[in-house]
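lol ok so funny story. i was supposed to be doing the assay writeup but got distracted and ended up predicting the structure for this chain instead. priorities right. anyway since i did it might as well share w the group, maybe its usefull for someone
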Amino acid sequence: MHIDQIYIQYLKDNDSKGIQLIYNKYARQIVTLIQKNSGTEDDGYDILQESLVDIYHMARERNFELTTSFGSFLALVCKRKWLNVLKKNQKIQVTKASDDLFHIEDHSQHEWEEMLSQVDKENKVMGLLDTLGKSCQEIIKRCLAEKHQEQIAESMGISYAYLRKKKSECMASLIQKVKQSGIF
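and the output, tada:
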């Protein structure tokens, strides 16, 4: 079972905070990809919502266990759903029974593959983050998720200056591990 199984559980439990976390983390990425592939922002949000409903039903009916990152799985479901919409809406009038009249260049598959590759790299970096000490993990993850570092420092019981110094040291360690791993 993948560590991202928690997102599946949020959907199964209809956990509003967890579902909001999913939207906060993945919505912009999915919407941008739909927009880059002949869709609108509304199309992107519709596809995201429909995909989450599909994943919910899959999880409820089949006791689904995630074996890859949730972001990769969600992107794949959204991709397939969007390609079905594009295929369904394709209305090309045929004026001659020859394919040489139409040259339609489709970059969507390549863009989706690039996006999935990027998500995979991000997941590998997050895996390397998990090899750092607990305090580094907490500082980096909270700084990624929350906007105000002053509030993070206060909630952790440390000074803002110390948080910034420690975050810088932790990021340097993470960057070193990423360089050694050859991810990029």
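The chain is about 75% helix and 0% strand. Residues 91-106 have pLDDT under 50 and may be disordered.
back to the writeup now i swear
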